[in-house]
Amino acid sequence: MFDAPAYIESAYLVSAILFVLGIRRLGSPATARSGNAIAAVGMLIAIVATLLNKEIVTYWTIGIGIAVGAILGGLLARTIRMTAMPQMVASFNGLGGGASALIAIGEFLRLSDLGGGISVETLLTIAFGSLVGVVTLFGSLVAVGKLQGFVQDRPVIYPLQKSLNLLIFLAIVALAGYLVAADASLPVLVAILLLATLLGVLLVLPIGGADMPVVLSLLNSFSGVAAAAAGFVLDNTVLIISGALVGAAGLILTRIMSKAMNRSLANIFFGAVGAVAAGARPGTSDDKVARSVTADEAAIVLGFARSVIFVPGYGLAVAQAQYGVAELAAALRARGATVRYAIHPVAGRMPGHMNVLLAEAKVPYDELYDLDEVNPEFARADVAVVIGANDVTNPDARNMTDSPLYGMPILDVDQAASVIIIKRSLSPGFAGVDNPLFYLPKTMMFFSDARKAVTELVAVVKEME
Amino acid sequence: MAGELIFALWLFVLAIFVGFEVITKVPPLLHTPLMSGANAISGITLVGAVLVGGGAVASSSSILGLVAVAMATMNVVGGFLVTDRMLRMFKRSAEDRS
Questions:
Q1: ipTM of this model?
Q2: Residues in chain A within 8 Å Cβ distance of B26
Q3: A256-276 pLDDT tens trace
């Protein structure tokens, strides 16, 4: 354990206050940037204060570590594409979790080398810190793999999924008990680490691509808990407080995301995420006819609309169509139309992802409306344009009790006077079910790649008188 | 010793409550920056990495510390910078089309 002198503890207190103030300011668009800066200052204070600790003797290794990390982190932050933000945040969650695990392991090795035994409390915190940190690291790695497409994106189901995970967890608890009570040796800790690695992989592997916002939120929370666990190991106040704050933030986002997908938090914790997507089969569409339209027909409907609502989904980002949509919106506005964007809470692959992608395309944020704000507006809209979204517009979620989407809050696109859907085909979304919206008499299907379609629409609308 | 762990748990639990109180009303617009900003804060584990890496007597734990320092620094620096980059992009329409 490291005993910090009073001036360092005071500096930590200042850091903790700055983190709380910073996070609070992140809650409003007007103050968010300063909030982030305030939190960064808090971080700087905590690190400088730590470097003043007299127990630190080898500065050169720290210098190398900080230099390498700062260069890599800085480069990544400047060059990463906004579509890849989920991967970046997932990687960083993993890095934080991994670092916390290494701290627990390093402290174990240090105390072992000192001899004289390690206290029960410290061993408990070391086992807990290693477990949370390693689960966060490997869970995040699998998540990054899925987001990048290295790992199967669809849910990977294996037999006895819940029982196996529970069994691994219980084995870890048993080993931790053995470590604390009987044998505080490295092999026991290594066994815990290996099982935690397995648990991290198996927890995230079964989860499908559509559930990524939930997984990322949860891993975000884990990375905070891992930092707090490292704080328990080292008896470090600022680690515990900041870790708890991040843990809370991640948990709140997890709850918001699971509500937006109509899944209980318990349901997610016990590993049922993605099971729905695997069990569902595409509905039959033989008896239903979708009306296909050309770019000209769609553009004329748009050109004469007084009120247009765009409904962007992840497909929009994949096709890199957000810039074209912004251009189309500008052209329609020039013709006197009101243009809004309706953003479902789980649009994109992390919480709020779609907002960032549209902000990058220079769409002002006061044109972005969330579910509760925009749903009453659909009934008053002349046209709703759905681009790359599917399940979040499925009317079956409202009243078809046997639909896997039943109960999920949706955007009321079917209330608009007419609907244009830009999509490559009638194929189902992540949930694997047919969307009755496609077959409504007022719906026009514009079968095309999103980016190409939007470019064509812009060209036609601009030509209109 | 047991007292210290209990005190640590006190801090942890109370800080979680503070977090819930402070964060609950974040609009969906800011969910991504909140997450990446919070993520940068979780890089506070750098403090622990510095203590383990710099205070080590054994070489094995100082190597682990060095790796942990690099990982946590990447998390901190990258996290705060990318959050700022995103927040710079958020503009009101008044500023764009005055």
A1: 0.93
A2: 26-27, 252
A3: 888 888 877 666 555 444 444
